[in-house]
Amino acid sequence: MTEMTDDRSLAAAPESMPVLYLSHGAPPLADDTLWTGQLASWAAELPRPTAILVISAHWEEAPLTLGATTTVPLVYDFWGFPDKYYEVQYAAPGAPELADQVRQLLSSPQHRVHDAPARGLDHGAYVPLVEMFPAADIPTLQISMPTLDPTTLFEVGRRLRPLREEGVLIMGSGFTTHNLRLIDMRLPSDHQAPGWSTEFDDWVHRAVASKDVDSVVDFANKAPAASLAHPRTEHFAPLFVSLGAGIDGRSPGASVITGFWYGLSKRSWQFN
User: Fold this and answer.
1) Tens digit of pLDDT for each residue in 199-222?
2) Helix, coil or strand: residue 70
3) CA 118 to CA 124: how far, in whole Å?
4) Would residue 113 count as lying in a domain?
């Protein structure tokens, strides 16, 4: 497994928050001291956000829907884990002002934005946030993915881009490769990754580094082993939102965390 890399600028311009895409792991990520340390170190180098907006692989709902703007219980959207993973708490403040901004940016006569006031943060949101911002004192809002269509999600991100100037940290949370049927959790977490995972990881790293957004959006046809790396694309889809919000001509996405966890790519990017 690979430690933190130097492939990035350590701070965003003061007038604009960076945008993140991270591989969020499963609830047992909390037991992986390497990965949790990487996430904590990353967060320590970021400007303090005024609020956090999360797009997680684990919430697909159309039309686009805003989660709770008050502190409500977390969504433990997983099964068969030990009790301790269902006892995790992350009581971040709600973000009603951010919800209003998102509504204004994304609403149109053709596209209504809905609300789910009882919908708490799912594990794609709180698992990394527990490690990155453990004080749970930053207002946090989650929004759904209304589709898995890359072009539509890229446009959602582009329309959310002004939030960066308000100090909002936009965070796409997925997994750079994700095929649970082809991994063996009985092996060590740092065992050699399979070829389909390493090939896809290398391809998307190079595509993002060269700002080849068209290829990333068309990854299903352009990337090697795409159907193996993502037999269903919900874990890759948050990247398109992050690209839309983050790729703006100043700098390409920079890899912050690399390596593999049970054969799945942990690669995570920061867009300054």
Assistant:
1) 999 999 999 999 999 999 999 999
2) coil
3) 17
4) yes
